[in-house]
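User: What would this chain look like folded?
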Amino acid sequence: MSVPTAIAVTSPDLVLPPHDRQTPPAAVQPQETLEGSLTGMHALVEQHGYVIALYSASAAAGPATRRLHTVRSVLESDRIALLGVDLPPLGLALLAQQLRQLSVCDFSPGVLASSARLLAHYIYAGALLNSVAKLDRIPVSLKSHAKSWVPGAQFAVLANPRPQLVRVGQDQLAGPEFGTRLLVATGQLASDWVTGTLAPDWQVQGVSHVPLPEASSGWWGTGKIIEFAAGLYDVSVLYQLVSSVRREECHWCGLELIGDRCGFCAAPLPSEPPSPTPGSPAVRAPSTPRALPRGMR
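Assistant: Here's the prediction, encoded as structure tokens.
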């Protein structure tokens, strides 16, 4: 039996509980010291063959991300994919969980790594805040900044897939048009709006409460927060989504991929097929990921 590709994250609070016994755990990288990170990553590569490490794109210059790049450079391994994802912390944890679910399927490491961008598009990640005064991750109008100083004001913010900010009680957040489960992580804010209003509006198929990731307060600009993330949770539906996209071969490293960029070497697909040379096969044009299949809407 083959060992599934390892999925790694930069913090233990980004490891969500598995849905079932088949979902493998996530590895936490980096560890406390550079030596520990090198030893841990080398062991993962030796055991699993390939490693997909997720980190927040907003923390690209942070110590954990720099450590990941240092480890890959020192190990000189082309079997480690480092993927910076533009999602809030809880959304990133959800993406890692989805990749863990898919890692036991028959997808190659290249397809699994490049599927992260596709899966992220179907994650609805946001938060309930009592102030947007320090929120700099999404555009905030001067009017919203002014309203954030009004006592008792609360704001619902959607960061992904399309940024949106509304005053609670005055408007609604645009939700998914397909079945999801909702993750809720509560910080220093007391409110039942997420479970009592948002969940019914989005017609979610279940709600799970999880601890608030440590990085969430910094990401959202306040500790008075309730973070939420809704996404696909059934592995068969996730499998259908990824397998519905045409596969290509990376012209640089030779791994399979979906979309327009390799998850391991980051090489993009050629924008135009080069002129065939004698004795060489024609290169296929890049594919465009298809929308969510009808049965999943």
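The helical segments are 34-48, 63-75, 89-102, 109-121, 142-147, 193-202, 216-220, 235-243. If you want, I can go into more detail on any region.
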